[in-house]
Specification:
This protein is of the alpha/beta class. The protein has two domains: about 45 residues; about 200 residues, Rossmann fold, CATH 3.40.50. About 40% of the residues lie in helices and about 15% in strands. The protein is built from ten helices and eleven strands. It has a five-stranded parallel beta sheet. Strands 1-2 form a two-stranded antiparallel ribbon. β10, α9 and β11 form a beta-alpha-beta unit. α5 crosses α7. It is globular, with a radius of gyration of 24 Å. The termini are far apart.
């Protein structure tokens, strides 16, 4: 195929056939998309369904029962006014870390084992409801939306890596908890994020590297010292060779106190990781009301799941 005076001249019948086939495929794809959209709208009319977040009727049948308005209202965190290490919202007088960056009281008292934690949004409103759909109502397509959010966080953190691409390690559930739930939400979200990695980057997902050796109690309501003791020794690195001299990026759905992530980072660094970072979909801002809400949500959802399992 040769350009001549602004026109395209086909140098052979093979070129013409290839171009014709491409046009046909393009037309078929457009037609298929139109038919699919029309079918979804028809199904929504015949079998109406409501958005699981706001209750509004869905315009189209979808594997994710959430309307576009609710998805649009999930907004990312705005920069500024947060701890440079854990991302906690700073209130009152701002103090600085040794590096001259703003830090919260907890990070100044006991610096976490991770270099930095970042989240897409605040654990509230529609984002909180999306996470609940996945974790407690087992709506797995929600992992795709949450994965897109996580991918943005991973990309920003990975830009600061000294060398190479990150090894992504989901913070694991204990085996008994994963059997009860049927999946690891952090791994599902990480796999969805992996599909959106930038061209030319190689994000390595390694869920088998980190293991939760024993179950742990909720961190909510514990003092910082009790939180550290609660997770001390709860995690083990199973494949140290895969993190040795590498930068590791821990991924999870929600960062609450940051103590669990710090313990995971501690054992990874002891196994040879050069630095450990933390990327999550959501971040709680530690107001007492927020922490109480998280515990109440978790207790209510677990109770509902137990009742459903027992019939």
């Amino acid at each position: 195929m040769l350009p001549v005076c602004g026109r395209v001249v086909f140098s052979s019948s093979e070129d013409l056939t290839r171009a014709t086939r491409a046009k046909v495929v393009e037309g078929e794809n457009g037609f298929v998309s139109w038919v699919k959209a029309a079918a979804e709208s028809l199904l929504a009319t015949l079998f109406p369904s409501d958005c699981r977040l706001c209750g509004s009727p869905l315009a189209r049948i979808s594997r994710l029962p959430v309307c576009e308005d609710c998805l649009f209202r999930v907004r990312p965190l705005q920069g500024g006014g947060t701890c440079a290490i854990c991302g906690e919202r700073l209130t009152g007088s701002v103090n600085v870390m040794d590096q001259g960056e703003p830090g919260c009281a907890l990070c100044r008292q006991v610096e976490p084992s991770f270099a930095k934690a970042a989240a897409y949004g605040s654990y509230e409103g529609g984002l909180r409801d999306l996470i609940h759909l996945l974790k407690y109502e087992h709506v797995r397509p929600a992992a795709g939306v949450l994965g897109r959010m996580l991918a943005e966080v991973v990309e920003k953190l990975a830009a600061a890596f000294a060398k190479g691409d990150p090894v992504l390690v989901p913070i694991p559930l204990h085996a008994s908890k994963q059997r009860q739930r049927g999946f690891s939400q952090s791994e599902l979200i990480a796999r969805a994020a992996l599909k959106l990695k930038p061209v030319g980057r190689e994000w390595l997902l390694r869920p088998e590297i980190l293991e939760r050796c024993r179950p742990t109690a909720s961190q909510i309501g514990l003092t910082p010292h009790q939180q550290r003791e609660n997770v001390r020794g709860a995690f083990a690195v199973r494949r140290a060779a895969e993190v040795e001299n590498r930068e590791v990026l821990l991924v999870d759905d929600v960062l609450t106190t940051g103590t669990t992530a710090s313990e995971c980072a501690r054992v990874l660094r002891r196994a040879g990781a050069t630095r450990v970072w933390v990327a999550t979909v959501a971040r709680t801002m530690k107001a007492e009301a927020t922490c109480a809400l998280i515990k109440q949500d978790s207790d209510e959802m677990e109770e509902r799941m137990a009742k459903a399992a027992n019939g």
